[in-house]
Design brief:
59% of the residues lie in helices and 10% in strands. Strand 1 and strand 2 form a beta hairpin. With 319 residues, it is mainly alpha-helical. The strands form 3 sheets. A 3-stranded antiparallel beta sheet has the order 2-1-3. The N and C termini lie far apart (176 Å).
């Protein structure tokens, strides 16, 4: 009775300890080996995905290139016979397993820059990643976060405040809690809390991380579609406005037409005035021709008469 119960309790404790130890080893392995190749990571040449998995930079880029190449082969394999098509389909699954759907390209692979410190192991000095704030060793057992900076547009950057992308960008969870997000912004920012990536998360946290990433990307896609729609509507409104302006301009009389109409309207009185002057001249000429006295006064080739003769002739004509 009592002995068997004690033995059962001891076995449960042993199994729990074994599970905890296995989880610790898995955490250490996830923090120190490449998720694609399984080889040891070069601590100075690492990238991480939104799930917190760590990759050697070159291995991650090669996996992306294989995905692109296999995608091309898969597209061309449908017309090359059933055997070739099956092989390309099988090959195309490999990059998906290497990186996963959540890695769309290089934009989803973020550089990891550890703060390194020397540690003596078996009489040999090696580099180990530590938190630059608390000096806690970042071996996978202590929770650590990768800081992904918020990108600032070049026109919004101040000349004396360029973004520094050369310093450490991995901090322990303890540093985050002790310092606070606002305090850390000055040296490690700008960044948003929702953009922090938990490195090598335990399996029990991974499902929550995946769900948050899906929700975030759905929101981003919705925002992009809304922006495109507004841009398209704005362009359509500008086009409608310009067409209305063209209609108004075409309906309104132009400068040349208004000038021509003004000339036409001004020409009528001038022509009328010219006709009136012509009529006056004609009447004067007729009067001069019918009057002997006037004819004698205005004629160019008239004979030279004395003043007395002109007066006498004018007097005779008027009587």
């Amino acid at each position: 009775g009592a002995g068997s119960a004690s033995h059962t309790a001891d076995s449960k404790r042993a199994s729990k300890a074994a599970i905890a130890e296995a989880e610790r080893e898995a955490q250490v392995q996830a923090m120190t080996t490449c998720a694609v190749t399984g080889s040891a990571l070069d601590l100075k040449n690492i990238v991480a995905c939104p799930f917190g998995r760590l990759y050697g930079r070159e291995a991650a880029v090669q996996a992306l290139l294989r995905r692109i190449e296999d995608g091309k082969n898969s597209g061309n394999g449908n017309g090359n016979g059933g055997g070739n098509g099956n092989r390309t389909n099988q090959k195309s699954e490999k990059p998906s397993a290497d990186l996963g759907w959540h890695v769309r390209g290089l934009k989803d692979l973020h550089p990891v820059r550890f703060h390194l410190s020397k540690k003596t192991v078996n009489g040999e000095d090696i580099d180990v990643p530590i938190c630059p704030v608390t000096s806690v060793e970042l071996n996978g057992i202590q929770p650590a976060y990768l800081i992904v900076k918020t990108k600032i547009k070049k026109k919004e950057q101040k000349k004396d405040h360029d973004q520094d992308d050369s310093g450490p960008n991995v901090l322990s969870d303890k540093a985050m809690k002790e310092m606070g997000m606002e305090t850390l912004q000055e040296e490690y920012g700008p960044f948003k809390e929702e953009d922090l990536i938990r490195l090598a998360p335990p399996p029990k946290l991974l499902d929550d991380i995946k769900a948050k990433i899906q929700q975030k990307r759905l929101a981003e896609n919705a925002a992009k579609l809304s922006k495109k729609k507004r841009k398209k509507e704005g362009k359509s409104n500008r086009n409608d406005g310009s067409s209305n302006v063209k209609k108004i301009c075409s309906a309104a009389p132009g400068p040349s037409s208004s000038h021509a109409s003004a000339q036409k309207s001004n020409a009528a009185p001038v022509q009328k005035e010219a006709q009136t002057v012509s009529d006056v001249r004609s009447n004067v000429a007729a009067a001069v021709a019918s009057s002997k006295a006037l004819s004698s006064l205005f004629a160019n080739n008239q004979s030279k008469l004395s003043e007395k003769q002109k007066k006498d002739s004018l007097f005779v004509s008027n009587c």
